[in-house]
C-alpha cells in the first residue's frame, strides 16, 4: 500500500512540474506567427507527396514520372542508397535512392 501512495505522490509532483501548453495569439508577436506559418507550410506542399509504386522502377523512369505527376517539384537528384544527405526540408525536392543496378529502393518522398 505504501508503494502505491509513493507512486501517486511522485506522479503528482511530476505532473505539476510541467507547464501547460497554450495556443499562440497575434499578441505573441509577428516573429512567432511568421515562424509558425513557415513551419506549417512545410507540411502543406502542393501536389502528390510520395510514390510507393516506384520502388523497383528504374530511377530515370521514376524521375520522369515524378516530374509528370507533380510539376512543382524541380529538384530530383538520383543518389546511391545510403548516400549522406542534408536534413533540410524543401517542397520542390524528391530524392531518388537507387541501387547499383539503377532501380529505386526507397519510397520517393518530398524532402
From TrEMBL:
InterPro entries registered for this protein in UniProt: Prot_inh_pot1, Prot_inh_pot1_sf
Gene Ontology MF terms in the entry: serine-type endopeptidase inhibitor activity
A Pfam family annotated for this UniProt entry: potato_inhibit
SUPFAM superfamilies (alphabetical): CI-2 family of serine protease inhibitors (SSF54654)
Keywords from the named record: Protease inhibitor, Serine protease inhibitor, Signal
Range of residues in the leader sequence: 1-23
GO biological process, one term: response to wounding
Family: Belongs to the protease inhibitor I13 (potato type I serine protease inhibitor) family.
Protein name: Wound-induced proteinase inhibitor 1
UniProt organism field: Solanum lycopersicum (Tomato)
Lineage of the organism: Eukaryota, Viridiplantae, Streptophyta, Embryophyta, Tracheophyta
Amino acid at each position: 500500500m505504501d508503494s502505491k501512495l509513493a507512486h501517486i505522490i511522485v506522479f503528482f509532483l511530476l505532473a505539476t512540474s510541467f507547464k501547460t501548453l497554450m495556443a499562440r495569439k497575434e499578441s505573441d508577436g509577428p516573429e512567432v506567427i511568421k515562424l509558425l506559418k513557415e513551419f506549417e507550410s512545410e507540411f502543406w506542399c502542393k501536389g502528390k507527396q510520395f510514390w510507393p509504386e516506384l520502388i523497383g522502377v528504374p530511377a530515370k523512369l521514376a524521375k520522369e514520372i515524378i516530374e509528370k505527376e507533380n510539376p512543382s517539384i524541380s529538384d530530383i537528384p538520383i543518389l546511391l542508397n545510403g548516400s549522406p544527405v542534408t536534413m533540410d526540408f524543401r517542397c520542390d525536392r524528391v530524392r531518388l535512392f537507387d541501387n547499383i543496378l539503377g532501380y529505386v529502393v526507397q519510397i520517393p518522398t518530398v524532402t
